[in-house]
Amino acid sequence: MAKALANLDAFYNSRLPPDEAARQFDNFNEQRIRLYGYMAMFAPQTVMDAQDKLIDHLLCISNSRKPYVWAEVRILALELINEVRRDVGIDKTDISYNGVL
Q1: What are the residue ranges in the chain where pLDDT is below 70?
Q2: What is the per-residue DSSP string for 6-40?
Q3: How far apart are CA 76 and CA 58, in angstroms?
Q4: Under a CB-based contact definition with an 8 Å cutoff, are residues 62 and 23 in contact?
Q5: Full-model pTM
Q6: Is residue 58 within 8 Å of 8, Cβ to Cβ?
């Protein structure tokens, strides 16, 4: 997922050519389908819902149905991370981004 987010950011900041972005999207698409299957075997519905929100948002961006806004992507990514943290019992408290960007 980190590589997909980095590629998305690079593309929208004109650091990744469109043909390479298309290849990377195809790779992301394959990996997201595989990840969904793995997660569905072990993750609770709350984790799956957070994953769905993030992936749906990324797909809408890649299909030009939503604008790319990193802060919105970050919020959804943190929601997924927090659901995973609760599920695996690392910590029940949420983490948050406290930077300035």
Answers
A1: none
A2: HHHHHHHTT-S-HHHHHHHHHHHHHHHHHHHHHHH
A3: 10
A4: no
A5: 0.85
A6: yes
